[in-house]
Amino acid sequence: MKKLLLSFVVLIFLNFSVRGQVVELMGMGIKSKTSATLEIADQYNIKQADLFAVSKGLNTLPPIDGVLFDNEDSPSSNWIPIVGSQYLSYVKDESIGYYTRSFANPLNEKFNASIKIEDYVHSFYAYVYRTSLTASYKSVVNVEQVFMYHNGSAKKYVYTLDIGTETASRDLTIKVPISELDEGQRMIVIEIEAGPKYQRFVENTYNSLGNSLLIGEYQLKDVPGNISEVTISIYSPDPGSDNLNGDSFFVGGVIADVEKVFNGCTLTQGYWKTHSTCKKNGNGPKRDDTWDLIEGGKAEKTVFFESGKDYCEVFNTNPGKGGKYYILAHQYIAAELNLHNDADPSDIASTFDEATKFLHENTPEEVNNNKDLQQMCVRLGGILDDFNNGRIGPGHCDDKDEYTEKIAIKVASSKNKVNVFPNPVRDVGKIAFTSKQSGDTRIELYNISGQKVGDLYNGVTKKGADVLIEFSTLHLKRGLYFALVKNGNDTMRHKISITN
């Protein structure tokens, strides 16, 4: 089991947002405890974990040796005192501060995610950075730690986050970790503003043990798409100026989870093969730059999970020879690129995440030796195939590249104005036809006994239009089938031989 790589860094408190990044905030109050553990679930997509432990030493400096570690490492950390700020009125005690440590996981490998803390501190929390193509939001982060003591409304501490722009309005969820350091009731004021949208929140807290950590969540709805900035203003009221009673507390940074607006559509594995640098598939000059977004930084040359091959080598491995692992792998690559291309993941989120975990845990050889794993590949690959072909999800893109034009020419030369290729079909086939009428069009598949076994297409076509669809045969038995293309009042029939 891999563990996180330790890195000591000087924290630069700037906005941090990466495409596909989501940030989980977790923690607990631990005053009077000598140890505590944060268990981080779902280990496969974690890129980094930043740990913080807040301490108020009451004029007694904390131990030089730190307190943060995972369970495969020795305890250690950085100690950063907070000794002054223009926003604070209480700045004298250098024993007020926090321990911090970062664990990086640049290879996105599985690691032991049990993280512990020891020593006398008040709260313990972690920012867990993940990559996720299936999340409905992205996270923007500022981890600056601030200590407040009656700073008052005239000296609000303001976090400013760049949330980017979108084509439509979106909701924001702001998360703030707040550590209490003493017993008693205190008031915390949080104001959130993004363009014309504004909300004010007041937290009244009390903890008789004085070991509280509040992770507050606050929503700002329908932020206009052209607004690119959100400010989060926080202060501890000053009884003298605000007529409200605040007290001392730590603010452990802020997260803005920004709802995504999806504008993309999907393309088949055939498109992504022919628009890459994979030599066997040609068309390198027509390469789609979406490949550059593949995590790993080497695009087509990135190693594909535990296969021992890069993306091109996987794409160029025929499932008939390489095994059913490659049925899933081919559809996964296409789905991954479609998600990078801004296709809405709602219909396949759980499937894609399940497939990601499966590919982390299994090699092609292991799949070849296990029928249950082979069936899993077929099941997951079939769902992703439906997504890539537009049968589920946002729908297939109407791309008009040379690949489609060549197919259209091939269809036009067919006497029946409908063609299936390759024929016989193994795993994946294509149907092309010329629409004779404008209106509703369906493609139904029947077995040799005349029983309907599935719908391959259901849409609207225009007269004279050349239509190309890709379909999966993974769920079908070997044998002879017939595709019926029902176009308005016209029906076209074509024989298909399936050799799965």
UniProtKB/TrEMBL annotation:
InterPro entries reported in the protein's UniProt record: Secre_tail
Pfam families: Por_Secre_tail
UniProt keyword list: Signal
UniProt domain Secretion system C-terminal sorting: residue ranges: 420-498
Full protein name: T9SS type A sorting domain-containing protein
Organism the protein comes from: Lutimonas vermicola
